[in-house]
């Protein structure tokens, strides 16, 4: 009835654009360690009340339409371009407008790139090609061979013309990597998350999502599109999660959605503890390993594999199910550590067949090109057969973090490969990025709202196997000088203000890398079908320094 009312209809229309639960009401803190703080028991989550029937007078539709249209007709046609300009001006004013640099990565000169002019070279320090697989010789060779034989595109959706052996083999490799029955490849992991979470919420009656407050936008959108109820729990806080889980009956369908590595702060999710809660309260676990596949575990299956490192690396038997066994649904990308493009979801055979049969995001999307799928499969096989690139990346990352700490450069503490340098101001973050690029030929993009909360702006640095000691020292010196030039807060300054994002917090000193020295020394035997070829040798900055 409200839709037929000229007042309520307009109000309801205006409310459609409101993001009720896509972001928390308070800025998200980058909590690298929540073991030291206790969560207060929250008040019970209110149940939806059954609306009482009311009597209403149905207005004349023609009169209502004329009444609404009259003011607009007097103003003339809607000024679309004016609205676009106002929205863009608002972003420029709050310093969240996004500027794009022309950066062209060079395959034969990784991690170098050139700008508009080829001779204008820079060192890229913020790419998500974490292990340099985008320029790996074996990946490129397999892509060239497939491109020449099968052409540029897939020919259509998987249902019509895009299903081929490359898709079958890639999905088998993804499933095998995560020790799951099956996997399904999408055009990106954003689409995989959106499609999967949307379908779960739409098809499971009365489903309730429990979502970490720092989850990626793709997960937030998928849950939102599903129309299912969503409960947000504090970042990596299992006490808060349990307090909210226990408010629902055991028979209520539930999905706990979270990530392994959170890309903007580098924190790592408590996967085992979340699995414990899922089993206790009858929930499915949905784990996004986008920023972990390729880089953690003895074969690159992600943090879930890494938590049982000895079991998978040395064949040691486990009396209890592994973490990989306990996680129900895993999503990941082929576009970061594997250096290609695309995403996938892995799980039980029936679950994957169900997604394949019902998810519009899969059914109606053109398949990835054969060459891309073959390249991704090769990257998975290469990284499953050797730890060399993972070790080099972790070694370089730890070196950069130590050197920045010596100079008081504020790095949000975390156990992963992410190096988030805290700035705390959007305008200053962009200024620092510009100085590094124009003065030092170092490309590090500023990260502003809405990717991070206002006041938490940062430079996100991602060392790779190619960032040796010389390049690392150049970065550290450039950051040191840039912080001085702009008068940016260092660790002591943040500590004097009470700390932010873990910077200036004494607890930060307890954070240790997830990769132990013993794990870094392990080299797996080749176990997949990739041909054995000599890998590129990466110099360790620690060894070079010694």
Structure keywords:
disordered C terminus; 22 helices; 4-stranded mixed sheet; 7-stranded mixed sheet; 546 residues
Note down, in words, how this protein is organized.
With 546 residues, the protein is of the alpha/beta class. The chain has helices spanning 6-15, 61-75, 80-93, 137-150, 158-162, 165-177, 189-203, 217-226, 238-245, 271-281, 303-306, 309-314, 323-326, 349-358, 360-363, 370-385, 388-406, 426-440, 469-486, 491-496, 517-520, 541-545; strands at residues 104-105, 112-114, 121-124, 182-186, 208-212, 229-233, 254-259, 283-288, 329-333, 343-347, 419-422, 442-443, 446-447, 458-461. The longest helix has 19 residues, at 388-406. The termini are far apart.
What is this structure, in a nutshell?
By secondary structure, this protein is of the alpha/beta class. It has 22 helices and 14 strands. Mean pLDDT is 87; it is low at 17-28, 32-43, 45-58 and 526-546.
Helical proportion?
40-55%
Radius of gyration computed on alpha carbons: 25 Å
- Protein structure class: alpha/beta
Mean pLDDT: 87
- Termini gap: 77 Å
Biggest beta-sheet profile: 7 strands, mixed
Q: How many alpha or pi helices?
A: 22
Order of strands across the widest beta sheet? 4-10-9-8-7-5-6
What is the fold's blueprint, element by element?
Blueprint: H1 6-15, H2 61-75, H3 80-93, E1 104-105, E2 112-114, E3 121-124, H4 137-150, H5 158-162, H6 165-177, E4 182-186, H7 189-203, E5 208-212, H8 217-226, E6 229-233, H9 238-245, E7 254-259, H10 271-281, E8 283-288, H11 303-306, H12 309-314, H13 323-326, E9 329-333, E10 343-347, H14 349-358, H15 360-363, H16 370-385, H17 388-406, E11 419-422, H18 426-440, E12 442-443, E13 446-447, E14 458-461, H19 469-486, H20 491-496, H21 517-520, H22 541-545
Parallel strand pairs: 3-12, 5-6, 5-7, 7-8, 8-9
Antiparallel strand pairs: 1-2, 2-3, 4-10, 9-10, 11-14, 13-14
Helix pairs in contact: 4-16, 6-16, 7-8, 9-10, 17-19, 18-19
């Amino acid at each position: 009835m409200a839709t037929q009312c000229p007042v309520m209809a307009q109000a309801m229309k205006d409310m459609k654009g409101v993001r009720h639960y896509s972001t928390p009401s308070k800025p998200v803190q980058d909590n690298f360690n929540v073991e030291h703080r206790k969560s207060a028991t929250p008040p019970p989550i209110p149940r939806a009340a059954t609306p009482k029937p009311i009597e209403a007078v149905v207005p004349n539709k023609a009169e209502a339409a004329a009444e609404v249209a009259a003011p607009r007709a007097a103003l003339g046609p809607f000024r679309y371009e004016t609205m676009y300009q106002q929205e863009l001006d608002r972003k420029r004013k709050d310093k969240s407008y996004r500027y794009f640099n022309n950066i062209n990565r060079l395959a034969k000169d990784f991690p170098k790139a050139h700008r508009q002019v080829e001779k204008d070279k820079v060192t890229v320090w913020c790419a998500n090609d974490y292990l340099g697989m985008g320029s790996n010789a074996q990946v490129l060779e397999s892509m060239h061979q497939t491109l020449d034989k099968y052409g540029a595109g897939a020919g259509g959706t998987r249902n019509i013309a895009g299903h081929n052996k490359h898709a079958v083999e890639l999905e088998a490799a993804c499933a095998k990597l995560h020790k799951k029955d099956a996997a399904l490849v999408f055009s990106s992991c954003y689409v995989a998350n959106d499609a999967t979470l949307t379908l779960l919420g739409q098809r499971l009656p009365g489903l309730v999502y429990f979502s970490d407050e720092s989850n990626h936008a793709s997960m937030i959108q998928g849950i939102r599109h599903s129309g299912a109820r969503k409960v947000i729990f504090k970042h990596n806080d299992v006490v808060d999660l349990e307090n909210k889980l226990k408010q629902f009956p055991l028979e209520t369908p539930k999905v706990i959605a979270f990530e392994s590595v959170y890309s903007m702060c580098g924190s790592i999710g408590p996967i085992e503890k979340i699995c414990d809660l899922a089993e206790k309260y009858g929930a499915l676990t949905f784990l996004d390993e986008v920023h972990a596949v390729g880089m953690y575990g003895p074969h690159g299956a992600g943090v879930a594999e890494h938590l049982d490192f000895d079991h998978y690396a040395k064949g040691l038997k486990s009396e209890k199910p592994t973490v990989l066994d306990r996680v129900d649904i895993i999503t990941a990308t082929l576009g970061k550590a594997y250096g290609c493009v695309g995403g996938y979801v892995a799980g039980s055979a029936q679950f994957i067949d169900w997604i394949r049969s019902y998810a519009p995001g899969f059914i109606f999307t053109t398949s990835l090109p054969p060459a891309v799928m073959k390249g991704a499969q090769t990257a998975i096989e290469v990284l499953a057969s050797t730890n060399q690139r993972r070790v080099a990346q972790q070694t370089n990352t730890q070196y950069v973090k130590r050197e920045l700490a010596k100079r008081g450069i504020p790095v949000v503490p975390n156990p992963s490969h992410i190096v988030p340098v805290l700035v705390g101001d959007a305008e200053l973050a962009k200024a620092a990025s510009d100085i590094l690029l124009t003065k030092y030929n170092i490309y590090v993009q500023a990260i502003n709202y809405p990717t991070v909360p206002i006041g938490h702006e940062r430079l996100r640095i991602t060392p790779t196997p190619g960032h040796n000691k010389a390049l690392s020292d150049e970065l550290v010196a450039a950051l040191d000088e840039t912080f001085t030039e702009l008068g940016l807060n260092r660790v002591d300054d943040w500590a004097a203000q009470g700390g932010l994002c873990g910077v200036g917090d004494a607890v930060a000193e307890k954070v240790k890398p997830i990769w132990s020295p013993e794990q870094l020394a392990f080299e797996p035997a080749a176990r997949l079908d990739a041909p054995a070829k000599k890998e590129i040798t990466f110099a360790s900055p620690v060894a070079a320094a010694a």
